[in-house]
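== Sequence and structure of one protein ==
=== Format: two labelled lines per protein ===
==== Data for this protein ====
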Amino acid sequence: MNKLGLTLLGLAVATIVATAAEVDGWTNWRGPHQAGRSDETGLPDKLLVSGPEKNLLWTRDIAGRGSVVTSGDRVYAWGYRGDGPDLQEVLLSFNEADGKKLWEHAYNDYLSDTVYSRYSVGSPTVDPQTGWIYLMTTNGGVKCLSPDGKMQWEYSLMERFGRLTFPNGRTGAPVIDGDIVIVRGVTSYWGQQGPARDRFYAFNKTTGESVWASTPGVAPKDSSFSTPVLANIDGRRVFYAGTGDGNVVCVDVRTGQPLWRFQASQGGVNSSVVIHDGVLVTIHGKENIDASEEGRMIGIKLPKTLPGPGEPQMILKDKNPAIADGSDWELWRHPLSMFTSSPAVADGRIYQVTKTGVLVCIDAKSGKLLFSEKLNKDQIHSSPLYADGKLYICFPNGIVKILRPKVEGLELLHELELEGEIFGSPTVWNGKIYIHTVKKLYCFGNTSGDKPKTSLPSAESKPNDSKAIALQIVPNDILLKPGEELKLAVNSIDQYGNILERGLKGNFAKFIPPTARVKTSMNASVNGNIITADAKNVASAGAFKVTSGKLNGFIRGRILPKIPYSEDFESTALKVEHATEDVKFAYPPLAWTGARLKWEVRDMEGNKVLRKTLDRVLFQRAITIFGDPESSGYTIQCDVMSDSARRGRSMGNIGVINQRYFIALVGNQQLLEVSSNHERVKESVPFKWSPRKWYTLKTRVDVADDGSGVVKAKAWPQGETEPANWTIEVKHKKAHKKGAPGIIGFSPQSLRAVYIDNIKTTWN
């Protein structure tokens, strides 16, 4: 089915979904108040695994590091199982009453450096309108499943939008508001989104079509766990979140417009914020921007007036005090430190466990420290839960404490130790407390509870002064193959981002921003709101300006070539003056994800080749995608080379990506290596290769009907006869069944260049 057909199918599904009954439950990570607080009463003072007063209802043997969510009589948990190359993440659905497994969806991590012994994850999110489940995996896979476990749509953010990975995972949880689902991650994409930034993406929750992308911060030093918190202000629907560049940001939910930012830290702000009576409270564990100590909790006064559409982002505080010193906005501060755990707020009090295991209670308005108490030797990720006048707090050593806050101090009600470390936060719903350890999922409590009717803050109705000011085109970011077509929806929106009129006819014209470094356009045409990619099998990218009456809007899009495809760079014109070297170069194809700042086309002895850039230390590793993420069953062949220091030392790594496997020549270790996640799929064989000498690398992946696969690779000096046998063959019991072709280069400390040329992708 072509993309036009998929769009029409999506509209049909949307109609069906719209008729579904709303669901009750703890549907999102931080609960209905977005603050780790529940309105339930009658919850247990003790959690007992045995004895006559036992209230352990059920357990299940599934490892986990996140928090469960509930929907009606369903419980959804995100866990993992297996070891080494067979480790898979698993989304599970259980019956609330007895813990019976209803279904599961298992999937591989890939093209990442996630270390499972180091990270916490967020949670699934349930759409309260439909009961559909949304999940962002540790390596940036966005999944949408129906309550019966059927996949509705999915994205690989890494392959589609250039999402970068980090050893600690850093996923957080999706946020649903109205018709959209919002996810985030550090991405290096193309064009204006080419530089690595911590970005937020909104998709239509029913069809998966992209609605907007937002870049509210600056260059990040880290990624972030921080899950957005929804609110209404000044007629706008907004969210607040920490970012990997150390900012707390406010973003328009409907349009993605960055509204303001406040620099809190030199590194990432991983904790989610909480809000009480016009005060936003955030905490971090990195170096402060105005002092050398690490960690701080801050109370920020929320702006009541926001920038209008098209107006610049407000900067409330910045590293450079000449821009904004923050004195008008920072209400109070405490030298408290926490990397990822998020505060809970109840009755105007902030409850937070610091990284050293100290529980602090702070008045949200004044910032006054009301009391503090040492509870454990440390805390890492788990966030406190406030419910029924009690605090439920979990610790990495498996300890769970139930405490009753008083005016000054705490009363310990119960303490127990569960099997396995605890990194996720507890969940409460219908009289039950859910805790997920790295060994088991536990369900304690009563068979039923009071199920308070609470929900996320609803969006305000359209203001009376609502008027059409711009066009919204969905999808706003397009990926096509040559000859494909796609139906575009053109809607008018008001100054608050509300859709006023749907199904407008747009006039589309190619648009090259005046600031664009690469002056290219997308090889496509639009007729009757249907965009059609040219049949020529080349990569292209560009933007369109869309007008309807006096309104206008913009979309961006890419065309990625079909297999078979080849690129030798010889037709590329070298016209760009290098900033630090006396050479001219060209940027790689604009449609290649994450390529422009990491690769350059250069002349080498009369041939044009692709060279890894060396002028940015943060870009030592380059992962670039140039094909369709849905591809499978193909072979990649290319020529590769590495520079070195004297006597052949300090070489780089260079290779390809084939169906979500890295296959590379590793210079310093003199290896031919196959990997996907270095903690699991990683095998190599010795391969002696010399610097400043070209080699041909050939790879393919074969997947059998039972899901097992073999990754094959061979390498030999360029120009010599291809060896009959594969140099390495790596078996993978649960193989990656699809994945985009791409290239990978690594220049240690950005000292030694690596090169690639004559890329060819063919069918197996």
In short: Residues 565-763 form a domain with the Jelly Rolls fold (CATH 2.60.120.560). The longest helix spans residues 3-18. The chain has three domains: 3-445, 468-559, 565-763.
